[in-house]
Amino acid sequence: MVEPPPNNADQATPNRILPRPAPQSLRQLFWAFNGLALQGFGGVVAIAQRELVDKQQWLTREEFVEDWAVAQVLPGPNVVNLSLMIGDRYFGMRGGMVALAGMLTIPMLIVLLMAGLFAGVSDSPAVQGALRGMGAVAAGMIAATGLRLFAALKNNVLGAPVCWGLAAMTFVAIAFLRTPLIWVLLVLGGLGTLWAFRQLGRLERNAP
User: Fold this and answer.
1) Which residues of the chain carry a pLDDT beneath 70?
2) Both 85 and 170 in a single domain?
3) Cβ(173)–Cβ(184) under 8 Å?
């Protein structure tokens, strides 16, 4: 006699694919991007990576790198482009507009208020020194985020050596050679795109 298979929900749980974290409402989307914007004092990319990948888990590190690359290439502020992309992905056009509103509404009011207050003290040496200190911190935040995101490149279709090479050439071109960004994107970005198409074609031909 063959015994029936055990009907145990606990044993079946590890085999189930857990649902992907996602914004559950337009309100959650609005406040998530509002919180992101209010924390982004000069280093929005660092806050965006922490909020969207580590906290909300709406994106993996690999997905964040890819989406940020697209946002970087498109005209306009990077984080604004990213908010539109993510909002549209989950709720269509409404989501894009709500995410954009979360990014801009309250921060815009704060910036207008701060601009009015700053106008009267902008020539103060103490204020100028404080701004220089904030600039150094913002640069450190961006550098730290870049180093954290390098781990996502090990699975990139380009291959880790090519990714490191392109990153190094981009740094040299912008930091030392002062090459205009448009030429860096066209030349190095174009080379990276062509190499990615080549690698994807090889993977497709070798697929079983």
Assistant:
1) 1-19, 40-43, 122
2) no
3) yes
Residue in the block written with tokens 């990077």: 78
The string of pLDDT tens digits covering residues 5-22 is 444 444 444 444 456 788
What would the two tokens of residue 38 be?
A: 């209010």
Rounded Cα distance, 86 and 79, in Å: 10
Furthest-apart CA atoms within the chain: distance in Å = 91
What residue numbers bound the domain in which 144 lies?
Answer: 21-114+138-151
* Nearest Cα to Cα of residue 25 among 131, 99, 119: 99
- Tell me what pLDDT residue 206 has: 81
In a shared domain, residues 146 and 169: no
State the pTM of this model.
0.62
Q: Spell out the SS3 assignment of 177-189.
A: CCCCHHHHHHHHH
* Whole-angstrom distance, CA of residue 102 vs CA of residue 65: 22
What domain count does the chain have? 2
Q: Which residue has the tokens 């392109």?
A: 166
Return the pLDDT at 9. 42
